[in-house]
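Today's session is about reading a structure prediction critically. Students often jump straight to the picture, but the first step is always the sequence itself: look for stretches that repeat, for charged clusters, for runs of hydrophobic residues. Only then move on to the predicted structure, which in these notes is written as discrete structure tokens rather than atom positions. Here is the chain we will use throughout the hour.
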Amino acid sequence: MAAYIAVSALSHEGLVREHNEDSLTVGPWTLCATVTTNPQTLLFPLGPPCVVAVADGLGGHPGGEVASALVARRLAATGGALCDEEAVRAELQECNRAVYAAAAGEPELAAMGTTVAGLVLLPDEALAFNVGDSRVYRVTADGLRRVSVDDSPPLPPGRRTTSVVTQTLGGSLGLTFVEPHVRTEPLAAGDRYLVCSDGLTDPVPEEELYAALARSAEGGRADGDQADGERADGKAAFELWRAAIEAGGPDNITLALVRIGA
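Below is the predicted structure for this chain, in token form.
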């Protein structure tokens, strides 16, 4: 069987927010400001560039769901051309300009903005990127390794989270330049990644996220049955969501669990 990408994704408003302002990109597929009650698993061949990304509309600003949907749809449309770090940085700059342009002349959308984090999956490498505090993790045998960089101020001792974000796509009244974080990771069969909004990582510590993922790792081995792997990935995505809900579900929860199969 040819190498493939399996993505199990879920997006939910949580228990506190009135509606979902998160959006999701998986290849050409998008889920924008919509709630899914069960994980959806999608398969793609490993070869052409494939984007998996989460955009989290800024709470407390108008039009968060508009900004996140705009970015998700742009990445779905342009993802096939994102073949290196330079192309990813350029596209995120264009996303930033597009958010500001969409808000121009629309008072109800003034200062709308969104974070974004994701992966461009190529045959031998993954380009991890982010602007803001949504995250990308590599799932290893020893735990979660964060490959994104939070755009947040340093935390005081004893504090794990903050609502302050120092860089976003859009988010102010005038065009502001952004410096996207982009890095290249090697990619091989069996690799797993988690892309998610802070509605997952704020209420649930990383060690608890990893415990939920580890319980599904055996079923998702690269040399195992594809159907078993898909079921395990879907179960892991559900368990991650459930952990955030059991922790109070204070924000929108969007996640994509990525596995490279062969």
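Discussion point for the tutorial: Residues 226-246 form the longest helix (21 residues).
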